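To the team - 4HQ complex, inputs and output below.
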Amino acid sequence: MRFDVVSLFPDIFEAVCKYGVTGRAHTQGLWQLKVWNPRDFTQDVHRTVDDRPYGGGPGMVMMAQPLEDAVNAARADRTDETPPVWLMSPTGRCFDQKMAQELALGPGAILICGRYEGVDQRFIDRCVTHEVSIGDFVLSGGEIPALAIMDSAVRLLPGALNDKESALQDSFHDTLTGLLDSPHFTRPEVYQGQAVPSELLSGHHANIALWRRRQSLALTMARRPDLIESARQAGRLSKSDEAFLASLTKN
Ligand code: 4HQ
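Output:
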């Protein structure tokens, strides 16, 4: 898998190539990253990448030409003819785990990171295939969304996770997909007077699995009832799950 990122701040992307799961996967050659700085594609002596918005208003807008030339350089450098071009934008489709899974199955993408108030619409119309948001909040640039998207896809590549980390991906955990995870505990058994839940100390694996499932269901119902409804519609809740959820409301 290969990502090409278009950004005015290339150094930010050292993070995902050097550290943690994505850093190790990069060293293993499971994925590659190239960053293209639109400033390197400017045509004036001042290397201008932004200008004032037509119609007036605050802030600056990224010019179409340096962005388009950067995308074309990335395209020419890739072997695949038509990689998807994703613009990081709060007006885009909200990125989710399903999109991460689909991205991880494909050749990668060209990710466009805007700064300032945004990018010239004519660049979007000419070059961008998808607009993607990581949530309903305003960032100062698309770099953090691009890092989040690459992290979520790379960790799904075969071989990216070590044996311990892989436990989180196995079919056992597929029963959890779409629900919030249950709480985790490690040593000591008592911390600041707070004991680890006794169910987790029993060594009875079926009881532990049932306790965790119920914790997940209760937490998801309390914090994200929308995810309970999605799981129900997708047929991911058993009769036993439904009985437990029904018991929550009756107390
Ligand atoms: N941006 N998810 C980049 C975002 C954003 C988001 C605002 C995109 C600023 C320049 N991008 N512009 N949320 O807040 O993707």
